[in-house]
Amino acid sequence: MVSSGSRSGNAGSDGLLRAGAARVPVTPPAGFEICGPEFAPVPSTGVDDDLLARVIVFDAEGRRVAICSLDVWGVSPALQTAIRKSVAEAASTHAPFVWVTCTGNGTSPPAWQDAPGLDRYRNYLSYLPELCGGAAVQASQSMKPAAIGVNAARLTGVTTGVSGAGAEADDAVTVASVATAGGDGIAQIFSFSCPAIVRGNDGRWTGDFPAYASWALEQAGGGTVAFARGSDADVRPYNWFRDNRSRSHMERAAPDVQAIGLLLATQASSAARQVEHRRNVSAETAADDDRGVRVLRVGELVCIGVDRPQPAIFARHLRKAMPRSRVIVSTNVAGTGPAAGEELDVDLELDTLQVARAAGAK
After folding, report:
1. Judging by DSSP bridges, how do beta strands 224-229 and 185-192 pair with one another?
2. Contact, 199 vs 257, CB < 8 A?
3. pLDDT for 63-86, tens place per residue?
4. Domain hosting residue 277, numbered range
5. What confidence category does residue 8 fall into, taking pLDDT thresholds of 50, 70 and 90?
6. Number of domains within the chain
7. Helix crossing, 312-321 with 346-358: angle to 10°?
8. Within a domain: 4
9. Residue by residue, what is the 3-state secondary structure of the chain?
10. pTM across the whole model
11. pLDDT higher than 60, residue 12
């Protein structure tokens, strides 16, 4: 069933866009097991870079909405519900107006497990929504007049289709830029179809290439920069397609992470510099909880989140079906294994398009 929300009445008196953003570390303590889709859990020995939760809050024509992105492999439906509730309360809005996504980080706490077998994570996962709510408080307190614009670029040659070197991946990089009237960066959200599994299982906490790319964009003045994992079930980094016996970058160390991260940040930064910002925008949300589909629209930006994994063609089809919108498609938000979802679910694609239409996507 497709549902959408009602006005929350929190926008500024002039009806124009306001926005704020914040981030908070969510790195588990050293000694807690690093989990992920590829390897057995291994106790962490330290931190190379903190895992973060990033929250962006918008007021647009009478509605307050929020985006929350976490540096984890996936977020279980139950945990998504708890995060939406916490962020909504902290931002003085309603849970349906909060869009939760993740980076697809393969060096992750088990946030996608409803009942994790690792008992020591129970308190951590219970507290994680409160940390996200704390970031929402800071984002709400920092809100100022803003404008938003969206652009796209391409990043070729750094991913491959899982079935072979000739398989089609998705090289689109979509970036939304939120800035003050003077051009200072408040926030960015960007997406690219590639699971963040470059780093090996070496016992160090890291956000993989999305964290490095986000850091580079933040250093360049983008504000708080959030990443949404793309439609990537049949995509692998570099030339790591199935049965390839001469793969590159197999050290799976920090330089291999940085190679993709820097290229991705360069393309996203180039796209962001060419954005046409607008203040007079509306916001809308819609969802089909039965199918695990949630959509948030701010102006021409359409953020689509799907719990189940889908191949790259899923995102390409949706972008083609909505040519007047700038679409970020984030699949596998609930975090199943990387081998799942390589076949396109046509019914899910049609349902997702229906939800996006309900949110005003065109």
Report:
1. parallel
2. yes
3. 999 999 999 999 999 999 999 999
4. 9-358
5. very low
6. 1
7. 40
8. no
9. CEEECCCCCCCCCCCCCEEEEEEEECCCCCCCEEECCCCCCEECCEECCCCEEEEEEEEECCEEEEEEEECCCCCCHHHHHHHHHHHHHHHCCCHHHEEEEECCECCECCCCCCCCCCHHHHHHHHHHHHHHHHHHHHHHHCCEECEEEEEEEECCCCEEECCECCCCCCCEEEEEEEECCCCCEEEEEEEECCCECCCCCCCEECCHHHHHHHHHHHHCCCCEEEEEECCCCCEEECCCCCCCCCCCCCCCCHHHHHHHHHHHHHHHHHHHHCCCCECCCCEEEEEECCCCEEEEEECCEEEEEECCCCCHHHHHHHHHHCCCCEEEEECCCCCCCCCCCCCCCHHHHHHHHHHHHHCCCC
10. 0.95
11. no
State how beta strands 283-288 and 235-237 pair: unpaired
**138-190 confidence digits (pLDDT tens):** 999 999 999 999 999 999 999 999 988 666 789 999 999 999 988 999 999 99
Residues paired with residue 66 on neighbouring β-strands, in sequence order: 57, 98
**pLDDT value for 1:** 63
Residue with the two structure tokens 């914040």: 22
CA dihedral 235, 238, 242, 247 (to 10 degrees): -170
pLDDT tens string 209-243? 999 999 999 999 999 999 999 999 999 999 999 88
Tracing tokens 């079906």 back to the chain, one arrives at 321
Tokens representing 204 are 């160090």
Average of per-residue pLDDT values in the chain = 93
Quick: pLDDT tens for 91-116.
999 999 999 999 999 999 999 987 65
Choose among 327, 44, 35, 71: nearest CA to 213: 71
Residue type, 203: G
Structure tokens at 246: 């001469």
CB 310 within 8 A of CB 332: yes
1 lies in a domain?
A: no
In-domain check, residue 2: no
3 in a domain, yes or no?
A: no
Q: Is 195:338 a contact under the CB 8 Å cutoff? A: yes
* Bridge partners (DSSP) listed for residue 204: 46
Residues in the chain: 362
